[in-house]
Write a structure and sequence with these properties.
73 residues; mainly beta; 0% helix; 44% strand
Length: 73
């Protein structure tokens, strides 16, 4: 997988390898900025396309091919 840049994740599409409660397709709805601008970005908010439920995850989790696939597959 190509290295991800957290600043460019906003509105990217992701597919969970193992769906839970029919939630398979997600969209990065927000990149959470750190309190200090000099600190690195650590978290993003993802939103389920099916239920509109949101959750906050570490953006680095999206690099795990066993959990996430980029795009809607």
């Amino acid at each position: 997988m190509n290295p991800l840049n957290p600043k460019k994740l906003l509105l990217t599409k992701w597919t969970a390898v193992t769906p839970v409660k029919k939630q398979k397709h997600f969209l990065v709805s927000r990149v959470i900025q750190p309190e200090l601008p000099t600190d690195p970005i650590e978290l993003v908010e993802i939103e389920s396309v099916f239920s509109k439920a949101t959750q906050i995850i570490a953006w680095r989790e999206l690099q795990d091919d066993k959990v996430w696939r980029q795009g809607w597959v």
